[in-house]
């Protein structure tokens, strides 16, 4: 049962027709689809592609739509010609400043994508296809859907003469997926005034489907922070025909075995506690739902935590996790190993820190012969508390969700994976993953082969974000200095 009101009705109805001949699309949908296809077909993989090329293609569209050149900037980090970031400023009424000016709204999407080998895919991953109700191609889900939606929505707002109350800033950035020139990290360090905002909308949220049925819409308001630790043992070694009890590989293995049996304590925060409380209403497994209710009522309920921990996704939301991901050791088949080392990938709750986790690792392996360090110098920032849910954002998302998908909950979440939101939060810009793009768990296969997104979900996300951004840009929030 779905209820739509105008103008969403027109936008969404056209996307529900099934077969998507271009003629069935509204002009706004056609524009979005064209931008989407253009972005997917520009290879933006680190080292082989160019984010700058994608930024230039989008900049050309904004200039052609009448945005002044000074409001359409491509910022290229020194020495990284393929890692250009596009910043577009859409001026609102309060742009001139003054006491009544509201801080801008920032729309963030990354342009880079994870590598995709032609040989691994049935067709060229850099040619966008539409088949059986899905868009297919590298980046169709992560993150070129949101990037194209933001572009198409701003271009349409401009064409219609929409004037927001606050500036809207669009940032399309490089190296979210890795690489050596993360655009958001660089921009907050070197060009913060250009992207400074009351808060940002980003990837990381979205709707969940159970089959074809919308289950919930999520707002990502926190994320775990990734840090890699190295655990290393050393030994004088010797001839393998004369083994001794001391052995670099066995010593490391013993430490890793202790780590495998260790679980970090439950650490709920202001996002995950209500997450479990609200998710209980849509969790189909009764035992899990009961554990969610029990734990959100009492975070010290260890039997509820144990029940939830049976599901790896929930286990990871409850606490910091550390897991061995790489291993190396020894230098010859016939020599006692002189060294052994493992990489331990930790996903740290935002209220903890890398130092705290390092101290815990040392306590768990309980062997001073195992040296613990950072695999690469740790630059992650902690202490960025989960973004408190912006009331105007929650209200607008809840109303639009009801309008478009019926009576389903809107649930704040913490990502166990990382996005660029952590750099913005650490720089004092609250960041929310919200998209209105629905998928079933694992369906998009982001980062994998045949990455895909439902055609219907794409056009729904287009309509949702269009309505949401217009509302937030008009919102009568408090003046922030
Ligand atoms: Zn992404």
What does this structure look like?
This protein is of the alpha/beta class and 481 residues long. The chain has helices at residues 8-15, 27-40, 51-64, 144-160, 183-190, 192-195, 248-260, 272-279, 286-297, 302-308, 312-318, 354-365, 391-405, 421-426, 455-474; strands at residues 72-75, 85-90, 105-110, 129-131, 134-136, 168-173, 199-202, 206-210, 213-223, 225-234, 238-239, 321-329, 335-336, 339-348, 371-374, 410-415, 431-433, 438-439, 452-454. The chain has two domains: 8-223 and 385-474, Zn peptidases (Aminopeptidase); 225-374, Alpha-Beta Plaits (2-Layer Sandwich). Helix content is 34%, strand content 21%. It has a six-stranded mixed sheet with strand order 1-2-6-3-7-17. Helix 13 (391-405) runs antiparallel to helix 15. The two termini are 44 Å apart. The structure holds zinc ion. Zinc ion is lined by residues 110, 142-143, 176, 203.
Bound molecules: zinc ion
| Share of helix, binned | 25-40%
First CA to last CA: what distance?
Answer: 44 Å
Number of domains: 2
> Compute the gyration radius: what is it?
24 Å
Output the strand order for the largest sheet. 1-2-6-3-7-17
What is the general shape? Answer: globular
- The CATH architecture of the largest domain is 3-Layer(aba) Sandwich
Q: Which CATH first-tier class of the largest domain would you pick?
A: Alpha Beta
Protein traits:
disordered C terminus; disordered N terminus; Alpha-Beta Plaits; alpha/beta; binds zinc ion; Aminopeptidase; globular
Compact summary:
This protein is of the alpha/beta class and 481 residues long.
């Amino acid at each position: 049962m779905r209820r739509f009101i105008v103008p969403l009705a027109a936008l969404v109805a056209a996307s529900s027709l099934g077969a998507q001949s271009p003629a069935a699309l509204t002009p706004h949908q056609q524009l979005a689809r064209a931008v989407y296809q253009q972005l997917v077909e520009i290879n933006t993989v680190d080292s082989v592609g160019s984010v700058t090329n994608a930024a230039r293609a989008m900049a050309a569209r904004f200039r052609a739509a009448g945005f002044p050149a000074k409001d359409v900037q491509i910022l290229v980090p020194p020495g990284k010609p393929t890692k250009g970031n596009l910043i577009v400023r859409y001026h609102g009424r309060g742009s001139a400043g003054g006491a009544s000016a509201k801080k801008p709204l920032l729309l963030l999407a990354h342009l880079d994508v994870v590598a995709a080998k032609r040989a691994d895919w049935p067709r060229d991953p850099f040619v966008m296809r539409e088949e059986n109700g899905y868009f297919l191609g590298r980046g169709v889900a992560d993150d070129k859907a949101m990037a194209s939606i933001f572009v198409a929505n701003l271009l349409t707002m401009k064409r219609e003469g929409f004037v927001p109350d606050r500036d809207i800033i669009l940032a399309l950035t490089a190296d979210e997926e890795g690489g050596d020139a993360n655009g958001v990290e660089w921009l907050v360090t070197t060009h913060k005034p250009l992207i400074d905002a009351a808060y940002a909308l980003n990837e990381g949220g979205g709707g969940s489907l159970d089959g074809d049925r919308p289950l919930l819409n999520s707002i990502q308001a926190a994320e775990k922070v990734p840090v890699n630790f190295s655990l290393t043992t050393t030994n004088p070694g010797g001839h393998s025909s004369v083994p001794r009890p001391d052995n670099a590989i066995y010593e490391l293995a013993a430490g890793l075995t202790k780590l495998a049996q260790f679980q970090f304590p439950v650490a709920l925060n202001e996002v995950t506690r209500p997450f479990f409380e609200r998710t209980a209403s849509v969790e189909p497994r009764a035992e899990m739902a009961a554990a969610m209710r029990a734990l959100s009522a009492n975070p010290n309920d260890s039997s509820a935590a144990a029940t939830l921990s049976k599901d790896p996704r929930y286990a990871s939301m409850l606490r910091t996790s550390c897991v061995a991901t790489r291993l190396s050791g020894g230098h010859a088949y016939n020599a006692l190993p002189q060294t052994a080392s493992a990489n331990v990938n930790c996903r740290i709750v935002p209220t903890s820190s890398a130092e705290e986790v390092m101290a815990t690792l040392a306590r768990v392996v309980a062997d001073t012969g195992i040296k613990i360090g950072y695999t690469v110098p740790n630059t992650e920032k902690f202490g960025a508390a989960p973004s408190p849910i912006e009331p105007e954002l929650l209200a607008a998302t809840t109303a639009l969700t009801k309008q478009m998908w019926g009576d389903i909950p809107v649930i704040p979440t913490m990502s166990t994976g990382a996005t660029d939101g952590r750099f913005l939060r650490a720089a004092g810009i609250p960041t929310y993953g919200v998209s209105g793009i629905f998928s079933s768990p694992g369906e998009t296969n982001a980062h994998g082969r045949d990455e895909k997104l439902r055609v219907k979900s794409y056009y729904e996300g287009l309509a949702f974000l269009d309505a949401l951004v217009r509302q937030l840009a008009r919102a009568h929030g408090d003046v922030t200095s």
